[in-house]
Amino acid sequence: MAVCEICQKTVARGNKLSITRSHISKRSTRTWKPNLRRIKAEVNGDVKRIYVCAKCLKDGKVKRA
Q1: Does a structural domain hold residue 1?
Q2: What would the pLDDT profile of 24-45 be if each residue is shown by its tens digit?
Q3: Which residues contact 15 (CB under 8 A, 6 or more apart)?
Q4: Which of 1, 23, 22 lies closest to 12 in space, CA to CA?
Q5: For residue 14, what pLDDT band results from cuts at 50, 70 and 90?
Q6: 3 state SS of 17
Q7: CA 35 to chain centre
Q8: Range of the domain at 22
Q9: Is the pLDDT of residue 2 over 90?
């Protein structure tokens, strides 16, 4: 399953709305997936490959190896 190992961000589910003539006529389900990258990172002094979302990489929450 797609999950960030730093912030635990996972797949979000919701409704896709079809708007016709200012009325919501149809609803169907859709998913939003996190923007994950597989990187080498230092975890407790060891180098491991982990999945991290792009926001955690940008904010510097993970130290790359």
Answers
A1: no
A2: 777 889 999 999 999 999 999 9
A3: 27, 28, 29, 30
A4: 1
A5: very high
A6: strand
A7: 5
A8: 12-59
A9: no
